[in-house]
Amino acid sequence: xxxxxxxxRTAPHDGPAARRTGPLAAVLAAVLGLxxxxxxxxxxxxxxxxxxAAPGxxAAPGxRDTPAxxxxxxxxxxxxxxxxxxxxxxxWTAAEGAWKVENGRLVGxxxxxxxxxxITFGRHLVDFRIEATVRFESVVDAARWTALGLDVxxxxxxPWAIAxxxxxxxxxxxxxxxxxxxxxxxxxxxxxxxxxxAGTGRDVRIAVEVHGTAARWSFDGREVMRTTRLARxxxxxxxxxxxxxxxxxxxLKVTALAPGAFLRQPGAPLTVLAHRGASSAAPENTLLxxxxxxxxxxxxxxxxxxxxxxxxxxxxxxxxxxxxxNGTGRIRELTAAQLDALDAGSWFAPATAxxxxxxxxxxxxxxxxxxxxxxxxxxxPHTRAEVARIVQDVRDRGMSGRVFVxxxxxxxxxxxxxxxxxxxxxxxxxxxxxxxxxxxxxxxLAAYNPADAALAARPEVIAALHAAGVAVNVWTVDTxxxxxxxxxxxxxxxxxxxxxxxxxxxxxxx
Length: 510
Hints:
Elements: H1 24-34, H2 36-40, E1 77-81, E2 93-96, E3 98-102, E4 105-109, E5 116-121, E6 127-139, E7 145-152, E8 160-166, E9 175-180, E10 186-192, E11 204-211, E12 214-219, E13 222-227, E14 237-243, E15 245-256, E16 271-275, H3 287-296, E17 300-307, E18 313-315, H4 336-340, H5 360-370, E19 374-378, H6 384-396, E20 403-407, H7 410-419, E21 425-429, H8 436-443, E22 447-450, H9 452-457, H10 461-467, E23 471-474, H11 480-489, E24 493-496, H12 499-509
Parallel strand pairs: 16-17, 16-24, 17-19, 19-20, 20-21, 21-22, 22-23, 23-24
Antiparallel strand pairs: 1-15, 2-5, 3-4, 4-15, 5-14, 6-11, 6-15, 7-8, 7-14, 8-9, 9-10, 11-12, 12-13, 17-18
């Protein structure tokens, strides 16, 4: 085989096998099957807290108290290697295959399609950027690949989380985010075509910025792909891998980053925040809409949370269940048992009948196991005890690093900050404050999230908020004309009912 194309992805000799997303009906059918337990179970058992985190993450108290575990400062260069010595750098471990330093470059060789030559280095990091100059010297065929290892055990054993580059980079799966599972199988979460061919004999610069389970990939200085489904471990480090090729590497650098990279970098696309999940394509605020948003490429899934009569947090926008379920009544006057029995999908389409109104705990479990980060709106006034229950659910599931709390309610944000200072905060506004920067500083905001019409009247506040280190995410915008205007104005993200379309628009814009 000399080329790589979508039909190659399931062939074992073509490396990571890409997961495919079909038409909406097929996706919904798959989700209904895959998440049947989550859709119907009233509450899953708490998961053990994760050692990793996504944008905005901070370690749990005590997690980094020892010198060995202490995270490096943001901007600290952890690895900076130009391969000027006679042998492998100190601390680098060749786990399989042939590795040598030759002519000022590190060279890894894999003789055939079934050999994953690999070398590990660095240290475990939650937030970091890894970059290298890569050159395919020779390949068995154009489907062969090399990879930056983003989370690989020191001994090179599985599981691995990697960013893969084929020599045939312009194929539909020329670039991939993938995981090699403990069972030695491939799970490919995201694929893309590079803007130009790597081929052989040509240097390309590849870089991946990682924030917990989220990552952004740049190819020759241009962002080409994102994921929110990066598999992380408690102690994985960085690595290089080679399959069916001889590849040389130079100018490799690993830099520690600050958590909470919410400000959009120059040239990067708009952050896609899926309003109530993919609410234009599936019943809002359900695990179905979350899954469609995830497969559509949303960076964040935005959902609402409110308590039941007996204090259980549920994912629901309205203060009543009338519009989006087959029940009636105010959510705060219905028990968890009553809410669990409701059908939250029939109103949308026959194919989605049986979807349940999710408890927050079930949604967090779904995100933890299937991928994604949550922009969680605390809907309406909440007591201290109600906010504390939300925080408890987030912490019990080990999701503190993947949840961003927003609200119109200033008191709810203050309570969240008091109870869970590790959670980033966003303030929703229908009209702008006279001094948004002062409000952001007072509340300790990571983001100021105004209505589109309000921001359009005073776009100059974007620069002022950015100067204060505060991101600007605009709601709720569903047209390409406004996406273009907001992109030009410099906002960081857009909350939209149409995440697939915005992700596609981003790709075309890039």
